[in-house]
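thought: fold this chain, then report.
action: predict
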Amino acid sequence: MAAASPLNMQEIGERVLLLRRRRGLSQHGLAAKAGVDVMTISRLERGDKKRLEIEPLARLAQALGVTTDHILGIEPPPRRTRRGAEQKAEQSELFPAAVA
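observation:
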């Protein structure tokens, strides 16, 4: 069996930073929401963190609304869903009787 490739902590930190910014959270806000020390997030985003335990990883993923696999770069980012009027307009075009 082939050995798994090592995780790229720099890329993991970049993904956390991008996700945090997309959700409009500060490092302190994410730390509070995830129950993780703000220095963990800061070091992770800077690429200074050499490893990340499973529990903080899971908490960050939950707070950011993604899977741990996404943060680790194993799966692609979740697709954005359309909401509200845009989705209803499309449904009414495709299924006019069902949206009435």
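thought: worth noting. Residues 9-22 form the longest helix (14 residues).
final: tokens above.
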